[in-house]
Amino acid sequence: MEPLRNSQVCPTPLVKDQQELLNTIKPSSLNQVNQPAGSENYQSIDIESNQNCSDLLKDQSFIFKKYVGLKALLLYFIQHFIAQMLILSNIFFDKSNIEQGVSTFLIFTYFGIIIMTRFQSLQKVPKSYIIFVIILILEAQIFSQQLEVMNQQISEISPIQIDKDNLILNDVGYQCFILFLETSTLIIYLLRQKEDLKLKNFFIIYGIISIVPLLLSSQFAYISIIIFYRGFALSLTIQQQFKGRFSLKINSIFGMANSLNLGFLIPCNC
After folding, report:
1. Which of 9, 63, 150, 216 is the most exposed place for a label (fewest CB within 10 A)?
2. What span, in angstroms and rounded, lies between the C-alpha atoms of 12 and 10?
3. Phi, psi torsion values for 90, nearest 5 degrees
């Protein structure tokens, strides 16, 4: 039998109906053949969870923001309360009569450090711990120096000698009263709030509270102004931090407390 030359094996031609059937099958349907039922739901949940996975405070739930904000407010209160206790202890008054150049340097250093608390690199541990203590000590030193200068000016103007200890006690008492009022009011408001913070509520609350000193005496008008400004600025800063100001991380509690001081200098979100 003579072998075949140039023989080729030709594929079996597809039936026209089979070809049309294959054309109607989409690649996506072929990929879903071996997938178990409900797998699309699991994939969508995984994608959504990956998109929502963030360590920024602004991306968290309001309940979690409240928890972090309350801890930061307590640290803020402790920081300034200890500073006032250092002033009351008179440990800085022996060094308060320093040169004008050094005094100016300390003031600029104090405000410079507060401004730098907006940077993420200084919001991390242990840098945030160190800044927390530096702000505390510088505040006590600067306010002690201001009280010393005030005492000298009063002594030169007034013929009546004023006891420096009474001056310190009165000033520290006013500062602690304002500190307690502004922080406790905001803490109570946060505990009761179940949704995002509203600016108009801050304005109304601290507007009402600032009237209390005026009811006692018209001489406390300056205290009312300080209470309203500091309370409103503190609340506004908390609200801005919740919305992403300073790009705070969820574990930057000390960094958040330090940056609250910046809200008094720069209340606007910038």
Report:
1. 9
2. 6
3. 65, 15
For residue 185, give the nearest of 204, 209, 216 by alpha carbon. Answer: 209
- Yes or no: say if 182 and 231 are a contact pair by the CB < 8 Å rule: yes
Q: Are 122 and 116 a contacting pair, CB within 8 Å?
A: yes
Please report how many Cα atoms fall inside a 13 Å half-sphere around the Cα of residue 13, on the Cβ side.
3
Which helix (H) or strand (E) segment holds residue 2: the answer is none
What's the full length of the chain, in residues?
270
Alpha carbons 117 and 106: distance in angstroms, whole number = 17
Q: Residue 197 and residue 67: Cα distance in Å, rounded?
A: 14
Q: What are phi and psi of 15, to 5 degrees?
A: -70, 145
CA distance linking residue 246 with residue 115, whole number of Å? 11
Cα–Cα dist 147/172, whole Å: 10
Q: How far is Cα 267 from Cα 233, in angstroms, rounded to an integer?
A: 6
- Domain ranges, ordered by start, for the chain: 60-263
Beta pairing partners, 249? 56
How does pLDDT run along the chain (270 residues), one tens digit per residue?
444 444 444 444 444 455 554 455 444 444 444 445 544 444 443 433 334 578 888 888 889 999 999 999 999 999 999 999 988 887 665 554 556 667 788 889 999 999 998 888 888 888 999 999 999 999 988 888 887 777 777 767 766 666 777 778 888 888 999 999 999 999 999 998 888 888 888 888 888 888 888 888 777 788 888 889 998 999 999 999 998 888 888 888 999 999 999 888 887 665
